[in-house]
């Protein structure tokens, strides 16, 4: 992971990488208009700091998630977690998973393997079918980890990587939701200071009731 890279590699990393505009959800919404559903975590709030437990500085297990108000006709829900600030050409993929059904949840550590019933895991950027815990380079600032979920209609095959997932949501996507978590290896900045550089809403999205 990036935080454990050798010093010579870290020294040539760019100050900022892919950015919010290259996230899967932004790429999708630039081509299609889709309704939204809610994505939440009991471990952190929208744009809140991800607890150390779920990062490379702790046990590195995956955080709990739940999603609500998925539209009728949803066959499964696809998840991709990307680091919008990774010093890479595209956002670093920390997890891909597909969960059967509509509204649902993932418990703590559910992305450690394919043991969870009804959950299929895809390949992260390190080509593992598991959660890749946040591990930003020291001194690289706040990294935004975006938990993007897509309600998919019926179709053949399950996306196993980023390209396949984007293709699936382009053709089968019914709705979208996301949750932003923050992590860094220094003191967190105030959220007000990030407002100008954040291209997703600082406040949690407002949904119709």
Concise structural overview:
This protein is of the alpha+beta class. It has helices spanning 7-11, 24-29, 162-172, 191-194, and strands at 38-40, 48-49, 65-68, 76-83, 92-100, 104-106, 119-121, 143-152, 173-183.
What are the SSEs and their pairings?
Layout: H1 7-11, H2 24-29, E1 38-40, E2 48-49, E3 65-68, E4 76-83, E5 92-100, E6 104-106, E7 119-121, E8 143-152, H3 162-172, E9 173-183, H4 191-194
Parallel strand pairs: 2-9
Antiparallel strand pairs: 1-3, 3-6, 4-5, 4-8, 5-7, 8-9
What does this 3D model show about the protein?
With 209 residues, the protein is of the alpha+beta class. Helix content is 12%, strand content 25%. The chain has four helices and nine strands; from the N terminus they run ααββββββββαβα. The chain has helices spanning 7-11, 24-29, 162-172, 191-194, and strands spanning 38-40, 48-49, 65-68, 76-83, 92-100, 104-106, 119-121, 143-152, 173-183. A six-stranded mixed β-sheet has the order 2-9-8-4-5-7. Strands 1-3-6 form a three-stranded antiparallel β-sheet, with no helix packed on it. The longest helix is centred in the last third of the chain and has 11 residues, at 162-172. The protein starts with 6 loop residues before the first helix and ends in a 15-residue tail after the last helix.
């Amino acid at each position: 992971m990036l935080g454990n890279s050798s010093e010579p590699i870290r020294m040539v990393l760019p100050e900022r990488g892919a950015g919010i505009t290259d996230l899967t959800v932004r790429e999708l919404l630039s081509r299609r208009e889709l309704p939204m559903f809610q994505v939440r975590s009991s471990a952190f709030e929208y744009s809140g700091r991800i607890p150390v437990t779920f990062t490379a500085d702790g046990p590195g297990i995956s955080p709990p998630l739940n999603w609500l108000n998925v539209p009728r006709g949803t066959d499964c829900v696809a998840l991709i977690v990307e680091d919008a600030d990774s010093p890479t050409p595209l956002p670093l993929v920390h997890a891909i998973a597909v969960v059967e059904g509509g509204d649902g949840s993932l418990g703590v550590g559910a992305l450690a393997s394919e043991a969870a019933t009804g959950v299929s895991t895809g390949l992260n950027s390190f080509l593992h079918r598991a959660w890749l815990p946040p591990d930003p380079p020291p001194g690289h600032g706040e990294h935004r980890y975006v938990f993007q979920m897509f309600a998919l209609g019926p179709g053949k095959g399950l996306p196993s990587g980023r390209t396949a997932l984007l293709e699936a949501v382009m053709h089968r996507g019914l709705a979208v939701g996301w949750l932003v978590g923050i992590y860094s290896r220094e003191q967190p900045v105030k959220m007000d200071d990030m407002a100008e550089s954040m291209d997703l809403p600082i406040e949690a999205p407002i949904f119709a009731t």
